[in-house]
Amino acid sequence: xxxxxxxxxxxxxxxxxxxxxxxxxxxxxxxxxxxxxxxxxxxxxxxxxxxxxxxxxxxxxxxxxxxxxxxxxxxxxxxxxxxxxxxxxxxxxxxxxxxxxxxxxxxxxxxxxxxxxxxxxxxxxxxxxxxxxxxxxxxxxxxxxxxxxxxxxxxxxxxxxxxxxxxxxxxxxxxxxxxxxxxxxxxxxxxxxxxxxxxxxxxxxxxxxxxxxxxxxxxxxxxxxxxxxxxxxxxxxxxxxxxxxxxxxxxxxxxxxxxxxxxxxxxxxxxxxxxxxxxxxxxxxxxxxxxxxxxxxxxxxxxxxxxxxxxxxxxxxxxxxxxxxxxxxxxxxxxxxxxxxxxxxxxxxxxxxxx
Length: 355
Known about the structure:
alpha/beta; Rossmann fold; 4-stranded parallel sheet; 14 helices; 41% helix; 14% strand; disordered N terminus
């Protein structure tokens, strides 16, 4: 294992990073999976408690009307701009909630995770807020700007030669040092934190009829869906996956958590290689549909969001709008709809190439 990366500067708002090229790791060790997870493991009360806990430290992100995109999607569309959240994505919500719920003993030992981008930044930020050590395991192929952003929040980055070796390297380190693993998505505290996005949507758009959510591992979708269905069951909730990284929908179809053999998508922020039992259980109960979009549809949406709204998002953050533009979300004409722009962590070189 090597560790030879430059320190990054302070990242106070939306760090400009992009995800590393996707490689497919094996299923994580049993210690980081919960085979008996049920949808009842996270409740609306948990989401409310998470909001009280985390929002003094985070941004309440705006909900912007999008008139041109409304016309193009045949909806009454608003955009929930999570790309304006601290660390540049919604991930700070769940990560901070998880960090604040740790016991004093766990905080003293520190936290460990694996990431190629947004979750690593979120947890590094959260660890800094509570004053604990954080170690983020990554492949040596990780993009330098992403590594710098994570280290800029004060976390340590450790590397394995390939993504396939990140899981066992992290698990061995966790056991040796007694650190607490904070999962990227299939964790009750993470899901409850992400559910606060749903609370804000309902408060700012109480007449909402449909919410469309980008899907990687499913933490955001699970949190938003359980919140919306508890408070306004008639709201249609649609998840959006890239065709080349459809682990959540494939796992639902098979009735078990799968690991993808191959990942190919421009939406690197939606490249979770495996599904988690807790997120799958909640999604199965609360989500109305999951649809797939192509890379071409994602890039078309990204360009339109930038040109028409002047909002900067990463490809993953454009997935919900992509599904609406392509007519795949199956929302009736004129539906009062919210699309979540989940993140904006893309560097200038990558954005130039995509555009």
